[in-house]
Each structure stands twice: as C-alpha cells, then as structure tokens.
From TrEMBL:
Domain Methionyl/Valyl/Leucyl/Isoleucyl-tRNA synthetase anticodon-binding: 772-884
Organism placement in taxonomy: Bacteria, Pseudomonadati, Bacteroidota, Chitinophagia, Chitinophagales
Enzyme Commission identifier(s): 6.1.1.4
Protein name: Leucine--tRNA ligase
Gene Ontology molecular function: any one: ATP binding
Naturally occurring in which organism (per UniProt): Chitinophaga terrae (ex Kim and Jung 2007)
Length: 921
RNA sequence: GCGGGUGUGGUGAAAUUGGUAGACACGCUAGACUUAGGAUCUAGUGCUUCGCGGCAUGGGGGUUCGAGUCCCUCCACCCGCACCA
C-alpha cells in the first residue's frame, strides 16, 4: 500500500465538496474566527506559485482554528474589474465579461487543486451586478454624507442643510474651499444650483477638477502605469497633464482617525509606519506674505515658522494660480518656457530628480512681514501644487533641497543658526540658538516656533495649522470595465440616483475605444447616456479599489438582496481576525478599506470602525530564471561553466524544462522551433544553466504553475513546501528543486502507518516515555508555531518528529493519531485518508486538537556547553537541581577546562541554569 | 528624493529573542540494497589546517563574561510612492 497522492487527493476533494464540509454558518455557539486573504485580480495568466503562499498560510490557520473549536469564516473571491481586462478587450475584441468569467474559472480550478477549505458558497465577484449594486449603494452613502469636524464623524448631508438654514456655515468651515462663508439668510436665498454647489464642497464623495495623464494621439487618459518617461507605453506618444472634472473621496477628513485607529490594530510596525508616513501629519503654520508692487499674497505652509528670518527665497509650484499674475514682463518668456518643460514631467520624476536642479525666477518679490526684506519668488518643479498651499518659504541654511537650489542659482544664503551651519550643507536642526532673527535672536528654535505663530496670529497674517500630506482620493476612471456611477446630471448638476434603481448595470458595448474629450467609452453610448433631453448619466467608472474596499463585509452575508450585509451578520463576524496579503497594498487598499468601514460605522451600518484586527504581510516570491548561453552569431549553446571561453548572448529559457540547473536538452528542442537544430557544448555530459533572480513573469519564462507541481508531487507536498521555503513574511526566490525533500517526508510519514506489502501497520501497543516525549515536544512546537504563522519551523518540526519515530520503529496508534491531527491543517488530504484507515468514520476536520502535557517532556538534567572566555570548548551534563557550587567544582575539575586554564587564574564563572556555563580567566 | 524591508554555508533557511551559529531540507561526495534507480537506507559535507587550533552571520567600530541578536556608522539589493491590481 503506497502513498498514491493523486487518487487520495481527488477522492477527498470530491468528498469535501459533496459533504459541504466547508460550509460555514452565521449561527453557531462556537467562538468565531474570520481569516481573510487579499482576493486576487483574476488575470489571464492564471495563478503562479507566488500567489498561493498567503492562501496556504491562511488555509492552515483556518483549519487549525477549526480544530481548536472555532467557527471559522474563510472565503475567496475576485477583484474582477480592472485595466488589463479592458486592455485585452481593446486588443482582441473579447468582452471583459467573457474573459473575466474564463479567468475566474481557471483561478477557481487552480485554487481547488490545492485543497483549500474555502466556503465557496460565499464567493464574491466585484464585477457582478449583484455585488456592485452595493458598491454603488455605498458610494451613494458617501455622496449623501459630510464630515462634521466638531463631532469627528460622518453625518447625512440632510443634517448639514438643516444647519445651514439655522446658522449658515459659520460653525462648519467648508473643507473644499475655506473661503466660502454664508449666513442662514444667504443660504435661504441661494438657488438650487448654488446650494448644490456648496453642498458638493462638503460631501464625502465629491466632484472637483484634477489633472490626468492625457494622451492626445491615443485620445485617452492613461494610468501612471501606462506612461513611461513622459510618453505612452503603447506607441510612445507624448503625454501631458489635462484638467478634468472627476470624483473624489474626502479621505483627508478622516486623516486623523485613520492615524489614531492604527493604535487599536495589530499590524506590523513597518506597516503602521508606512501608513503614518502616507497620512503625513505635520504641525506648523500657514503664513501670508505680501508681494512687492502687487496686491496678491502668497500663502505658504511651513513646519518651521521659527526659521522665518532665514527665508532667502520663495518657491511656488509651477501650477500655482498666482504664477501668471506675478510674473514680470522681463521674466515672462523664461517662465513660460519653464512651464512647458514642467508640463512634460511626471510627479514622480519631479520629486525624484536630485542631480538636476531646475527652476525659474518670476521677477516678483515677497516681503518678509517681520523685517520687510524683499524675497525673490521662484517657481520650481520640486514644489507640488497638491501639497500644503503649493508654495514654500525656502530656508537654505536649514533645508538641504533649498540649500542646493540656492547654490545652483547663486541666491545668497542667510545664516540664522550660527556655528550650527557650516556653509557646505544645510543643517535641519531644531536645537540651535537663533541668530540674525530680529526679535527671536538668542532664542532656542523649538520655543521660537510658538512665539512666531502667536505673533503671526496677532498680526492677522498667519495661523497654526495641522497639515496632512495625504490627498483626497481620485475616484473617477475614464474607462469601461469598472462600476458605473449611480449619478445623473440634470442640466449639468449631479444628482444621486434612487436606491431602487440600483444597480446601474454596465451597458454592453461593441468596442472599448475612448469617448470624446478624454471621456470614457461609456460616453459613446449616447442612448444610455442621454436619459432625457437635459438628463445625462455619469460616464466615468469607479477605480479598481472601489469593489475591494468592502468585499470582506460581503463575505459575511453574500446573498443578501436587501442590504450590503445584514447588521446581524456583521455584528457576529465583526472584525477580520487575521488578514494576509502583500505589502504592495500597504497604503492604497488598506487605507480605503479602513475609510469605508469608518464611514459605514459613522452612519450606523456597522458596529466596528476598524476592519482588520490584525494583518500579516506575506513576502513576494521572486522568480528564479534560467539562462542558456548562445555563442554569438551561431545556434550553438555553451554550458554555464564554459561560457567565459566564448562570446555569448544569454537567453531566458522556460524554468519548467530545467531540473535544478541542468537543462533538459530534448525538451528545449521541442520548446521553440528556433532550438530544434541547436547544438550544445556540455560540461561533464550536462548542460548547466545560469541562474538569475528577478520578478516572476511570463515574459521571463520563470513562472511555475501550481497545477504542474500538484500533479507531480500532490497538493499536500506543494502546500508544505511553500511553507517550508521560509517565513511567510519574507520575500524569497522560488526554486522547485527542494520540493522533493518535503515529498520524501510525507512518504516517510506514510510508512509509519502503512507498508507496501503489509498495508496498515499501526498497532495498539503502549507508547514508551521516549515516544511520548517526542510526541509532546512536537505538539507543543506545532501548536505554538501554527498559532504564530511560523509555518516553516513547524514543517521542520514535523520532519524531526517523523525522523525520530521512524528510527524508533514506532507504529503505535497512541502516538500516530495525535500526530495526524496536528498535521491535518498542513496536509489535509493525506491525513483524511490515514484517519479513515485508522477506523474513523467522521472526518478528521472535526477531530480534537491534541493537548500538550508537560509531564512527558520534563528534563532532569541538561548538557551544558562549557565556554572558556565565551568560546565553547566542551560539554558537561548536570542535574538541573544540582547546586551552583557543585557545578563550579566539577567544571574546574574537567580536564578540558584544566588544560585551558593552565597558568591562569579563574576570574569568575557564569552559570545560567539550563543554558550554558562560561569560565572567565 | 521620500518611505519600508532584507543581508547567515554551494542553495532555502534555523537559532528557545543576549547564551553550543548553521536545526530541518536541497545539492554534492562515498557506500549498501537492487535487473534498474530520478525508489529506499547509511555515513560525510561552513572555510582553513596533517593535527592542536584558527576564522566565520554584508563591511567597519562599540557595549558585554558572552553579540547573528543591542548601539553607532558605512555598503549592497528588493518593494511602494496616490490612475496596475
């Protein structure tokens, strides 16, 4: 009876499906546990071995929690809207609905092949109208809400209208435009259009103008991904900025709560740090500077008001609205030329550029309010319009970028920190004494900040201000394959559609070409757009993160037709207990999900305001490419070790036709016609490939399909091998070669239970203390490691256990049965099979997790390493209860110690019970 | 540029969190069984040295009886940066 994994795995996968054993109820007396994976985008390329890493980890954890007596929610779905599918449609004419369905089916097949315990009855697909109906519904909640800064929560917009009628907006600064102020009387006199304009400035989902990447030649707006070095990826056409009216989510209103919420969740410090940096809270001041010979004012935001006497120039973002009005005639030409240059630069390039300093003087001067000094006003690309006020006061002695700028353009530098500034680089210290600083002279910088702000407020030209680097989230895409907005425009004024008319289904189109003026493809469907003579639909669609911002809630109640998820269900499942996914979502997806949850909480639809109680970041699995070396100008290939004797070109070959580094030459010849007649120069009769670590990508022929490995070694081996590779959090390259070690382990385990000739060989003998010790050491380790997502060390513990039991020839039920339960989360198919052979009728999934008992592992003696001056020289075994003096005596009498001590005297001896002994001489 | 992460044998890694560096595997070497071996088993395998020993956790410095682990500093690589998902 041998380990026939193919038959076993098929058998149990069918059994599980037929018995609905993974079906989860929302009604259970057991404690709940919600284990979530970041759901995948169902790309046409299918899953490669990098994807399941996190899925296997959560699957093991989910099964473990189930065995520990929890009601576990473990689900899978698809984040199915997205650019690649639309791009594919554009190229092939295949409708995204069709390709999405095909891709999803392929993904599901691959996932099932690995034996996951998902409750498939809860599967979601964000591109399904029954799902995106609720995405649209939540959008409407955002549209119909505003954020009350006094209460620090979202409220229905109707409440705001009530407030305006009572008292105008004097107690509620307009977040969209601070300058908007009106009384109750004025509000009452405004017409509908004006009122709705004002309300728009308060809504959590709102319309505003923002720049997009516009490609005239393609007639379309491009994603950042599609722009490379200022030209389109497709075709290489020029790309410029274009202002368009777009939807935004007012996430900035939640900046502080998103920041504070981090204190209540269990994310890694690195992850929290990334989110904090993204939110970018800073305290400082807004200061208005008057201009020389101009009525305008420049408003800057600075975190260092204490350095105001060190301001040697001002920098405006090139897009700043004042630029055109302050530029002097002499500088006009230079400024316009510079603006043209900036137009072609991406935001990333603008921030990252360090070697090349660019900028242009506007000819204007600002006036320092404290000493009347004239400060030249420049524009430069390193100042971005969206940050702060889009203008900075530059203090070259304190800021390195300002310093570089001043040096480059020969702007004189004022030193306000005395010796702390060495003249060759800026010093951003906050602990120097101020000099050359008028009334601040002699003051420490930190207290000076408050002094300056108070003075500015007194003078009415500045104020204390908390700023966030985070910007409101763009929520429009000029694309087809996304959720349509439930919005109609009546005479150009946007209105929410009625809830009963949801979902607004994505209309069927024949082609996916962009609409006029940068609008999305939906703009081309005039009979869909034009509902009535002056009533038009919104033609933008929602971005990729819309559907993924709340999918974890839909899993709780996936078939509900009346609401996104019943409050009873969300109260029961509550927060996601463990969420596993890649760091690449550190800021985007996680912040949006946290935002949506908070809004739904504020509006009373949820009972919790942080979606994810704890988060684990899985590392990326890198590709390990294989290279062959073609001798230049020939079709002859030379093995890696000999390649330096020739002039060669390295070519990527499919990793699946290479065993480790040894090329399967026949397979290569069949792989591509160009290799059919190839000849080879071998070393030791083999062709050895070169190895290169890089991204796992189809293009580099280094992707490995889990299906191939499952077919060759079985799902249980595959699962355990992925875990054996290393810590889940760590990135590592994929190497198929090592999988055989894990496969051998499972076969060895199998042989503890069954013999090829004799069949099942498990006996009923009583276990020895030694066997019990092995078992209980393993229980302790596996329980601990599984609970802590330390699956790699758990797998090696299983190996050690099986190695030890095999060498003891142990085939005892009392030992093997608990071991099988321990292993079930890792190798569910094999365990089910052996469990059945052991005579159980009930699935092992419902077994009881073994309990560690200390009495079996207690030690009475310990073998100490004996170190002389910290270097281990020998070992000695002592009873753990032996007195320190006795140990000391025995150590000094040890011949090895005596030898090392020769001629030297003992300084001290360090004895750590149960750890080590160090003799210091 | 900003932010985050990672550096330990030929390879993936482990190290009870300051206490025997390299567990467990892959690979490699030798052997046993075998018609066969890409099955199984046994032994060996960080570098260096005949050996005693010496040297080793990216480089340099420090704290300590003791450092992969703590501190300072430098370097290399990977990921993210707001329209890829």
């Amino acid at each position: 009876m041998e380990y026939n994994f193919r038959a076993i795995e098929k058998k149990w996968q069918k059994q599980w499906e037929d018995s609905h054993i993974y079906h989860v109820s929302n009604d259970s007396p057991k404690p709940k546990c919600y284990v979530l994976d970041m759901f995948p985008y169902p790309s046409g390329a299918g899953l490669h071995v990098g994807h399941p890493l996190g899925y296997i980890a959560t699957d093991i954890y989910a099964r473990y929690k189930r065995l520990k007596g929890f009601n576990v929610l473990h689900t899978m779905g698809y984040d199915a809207f997205g650019l690649p599918t639309e791009q594919y449609a554009l190229e092939t004419g295949q409708h995204p609905v069709v390709t999405t369905e095909q891709n999803i089916n392929a993904f599901r097949q691959q996932l099932n092949n690995i034996g996951f315990c998902y409750d498939w009855s809860r599967e979601v697909n964000t591109s399904d109208p029954s799902y995106y109906k609720w995405t649209q519904w939540i959008f409407l909640q955002l549209f119909e809400s505003w954020y009350d800064r006094n209460l620090q929560k979202a409220l229905p917009i109707k409440t705001l209208e009530g407030v305006f009628e009572q008292e105008g907006n004097k107690n509620h600064v307009c977040p969209g435009d601070r300058s908007i102020q009106f009384t109750a009387e004025e509000w009452k006199q405004y017409d509908e259009v004006t009122r709705r304009d004002i309300l728009m400035q308060y809504r959590l989902a709102y319309l505003a103008y923002a720049e997009v990447n516009w490609c005239e030649a393609l007639g379309t707006v491009l994603a950042n991904d599609e722009v490379i070095n200022g030209v389109s990826e497709r075709g290489g056409y020029p790309v410029v900025k274009k202002k368009m009216r777009q939807w935004f989510l007012r996430i900035t209103e939640y900046a502080n709560r998103l920041l504070e919420g981090l204190e209540t969740v269990n994310f890694s410090d690195a992850m929290k740090e990334m989110q904090r940096n993204w939110i970018g809270k800073s305290q400082g001041a807004e200061i208005k500077f008057n201009l020389k010979n101009n009525d305008g004012q420049i408003e800057v935001y600075t975190t260092r008001p204490d350095t105001i006497f060190g301001v040697d120039f001002m920098v405006l973002a090139p897009e700043h609205e004042l630029v055109s009005s302050i530029t002097t005639p002499e500088q006009k030409e230079a400024v316009e030329k510079y603006l043209d240059y900036v137009q072609s630069r991406s935001e990333r390039e603008r921030m990252a550029e360090v070697k090349q300093i660019t900028g242009c003087f506007t000819g204007a001067y600002a006036i320092n309010p404290f000493n009347g000094r004239e400060i030249p006003v420049w524009i430069a690309e390193y100042v971005l319009a969206g940050y702060g006020t889009g203008a900075i006061m530059a203090v070259p002695c304190g800021d390195q970028r300002d310093f570089g700028f001043a040096r480059h353009f020969n702007i004189p530098i004022t030193n306000i920190i005395g010796d702390a500034f060495n003249g060759t680089e800026a010093n951003p210290t906050k602990d120097a004494k101020l000099q050359n600083s008028g009334f601040l002279d002699g003051m420490e910088m930190r207290p000076a900040m408050d002094v300056v702000i108070n003075k500015l407020e007194e003078m009415g030209i500045g104020r204390r201000q908390i700023n966030y680097k985070m910007r409101d989230a763009g929520f429009s895409r000029q694309r087809y394959w996304g959720e349509p907005f439930p919005i109609v425009y009546r005479n150009g004024v946007p209105y929410a559609m009625d809830e009963k008319d949801l979902p607004v289904e994505l209309p069927y189109v024949e082609n996916y070409k962009p609409g006029p003026d940068g609008e999305g493809p939906l703009a081309n469907i005039t009979d869909w757009v034009n509902i009535a003579p002056d009533v038009k639909r919104e033609t933008n669609t929602m971005p990729g993160y819309a559907g993924s911002s709340w999918y974890f809630l839909r899993y709780m109640d996936p078939h509900n037709k009346n609401t996104f998820a019943d409050r009873k269900a969300t109260d029961y499942w509550n927060q996601v207990d463990v969420y596993v996914g890649g760091t690449e979502h550190a800021v985007g997806h996680l912040l949006y999900s946290r935002l949506w949850t908070k809004v739904l909480y504020d509006l009373g639809y949820l009972g919790f305001d942080e979606p994810f109680k704890s988060l684990i970041n899985q590392g990326m699995i890198g590709g390990s490419s294989r290279l062959v070396y073609r001798i230049h100008g020939t079709n002859q290939y030379v093995s890696h070790g000999l390649k330096d004797q020739y002039q060669t070109d390295a070519l990527h070959v499919d990793v699946n036709i290479v065993d480790g580094v040894e090329l399967d030459i026949e397979a290569l010849k069949k792989w591509k016609p160009e290799f059919a007649d190839a000849t080879f120069i071998l070393e030791d009769g083999k062709y050895i490939c070169g190895v290169q670590l890089e991204k796992m990508s189809k293009r580099l022929f280094n992707t490995v399909n889990p299906n191939d490995l499952v077919n060759k070694y079985g799902a249980d081996t595959f699962r355990m091998y992925e875990m054996f590779l290393g810590p889940v959090e760590q990135s590592k390259p994929w190497d198929t070669k090592g999988i055989e070690g894990v496969h051998r382990f499972l076969k060895k385990l199998w042989r503890l239970f069954a013999d090829e000739q004799k069949g099942i060989i498990v006996n009923e003998q009583a276990p020895t203390p030694e066997e019990l010790k092995i078992l209980h050491k393993t229980i302790q380790k596996i329980d601990h490691d599984t609970n802590n997502f330390s699956f790699n060390t758990a797998v090696s513990s299983f190996m050690i256990c099986v190695n030890e039991l095999a060498s003891l020839n142990c085939h005892k039920r009392a030992i093997l049965e608990p071991l099988l339960v321990l292993l079930t989360p890792y190798a569910p198919h094999l365990c089910e099979e052996l469990w059945q052979y052991l005579g159980h009728n009930e699935s092992i999934l419902n077994a009881i997790y073994p309990v560690y008992e200390e009495k079996y592992t207690a030690e009475t003696a310990f073998t100490y390493p004996i170190a002389i001056n910290g270097k281990t020289r020998t070992e000695m075994s002592f009873d753990l209860n032996l007195a320190t003096e006795e140990i000391e005596k025995a150590v000094l009498a040890n011949p090895v110690v005596e030898k090392w001590m020769e001629g030297k005297s003992l300084k001290r001896m360090i004895i750590i019970k149960g750890k080590m002994i160090n003799v210091v001489i």
